[in-house]
UniProtKB/TrEMBL annotation:
Family label: Belongs to the ClpS family.
Keywords from the named record: Hydrolase, Protease
Single Gene Ontology BP annotation: proteolysis
Subunit record text: Binds to the N-terminal domain of the chaperone ClpA.
Adaptor protein ClpS core domain boundaries: 18-96
Gene3D superfamilies given in the database record: 3.30.1390.10
GO function terms (MF aspect): peptidase activity
Name assigned to this protein: ATP-dependent Clp protease adapter protein ClpS
The keyword Transferase is annotated on this UniProt entry: no
Database matches in InterPro entries: ClpS (IPR022935), ClpS_core (IPR003769), Ribosomal_bL12_C/ClpS-like (IPR014719)
Source superkingdom: Bacteria
Pfam families for the chain: ClpS
Function comment: Involved in the modulation of the specificity of the ClpAP-mediated ATP-dependent protein degradation.
Source organism phylogeny: Bacteria, Pseudomonadati, Pseudomonadota, Alphaproteobacteria, Hyphomicrobiales
Length: 101
């Protein structure tokens, strides 16, 4: 009688890599009013009044401050929209993005 050899089935599951994250950074300038910066932070990044004020003060004292961390597309979109709000009002408000290490 022939021997039947059973081979176990192995399931291979592809490993999905988590998307790389990017920091949205507020760059300080000496011309944009503080209240306006707080308003933009609250509107675009959904920060509370207190959080927005702390981010604005940190950027003012240190020159830059990380506002939030998102996937690349979201970070670039939010940074561009927040910068555009400043430009529309005639302020040199600047938000940039960079990869998170």
């Amino acid at each position: 009688m022939p021997e039947t050899v059973l081979k176990p089935r192995t399931k291979t599951q592809p490993k999905t890599e988590r998307p790389k994250l990017y920091k949205v950074i507020l760059v300080n300038d000496d011309f944009t009013p503080r209240e306006f910066v707080v308003t933009v932070l609250k509107g675009e990044f959904k920060l509370s009044e207190d959080q927005a004020h702390r981010v604005m003060i940190t950027a003012h004292t240190r020159g830059v401050c990380v506002v939030a961390v998102f996937t690349r597309d979201v970070a670039e979109t939010k940074a561009a929209r927040a910068t555009d709000v400043g430009k529309a009002k005639g302020y040199p408000l600047l938000f940039t993005t960079e990869p998170e290490e």
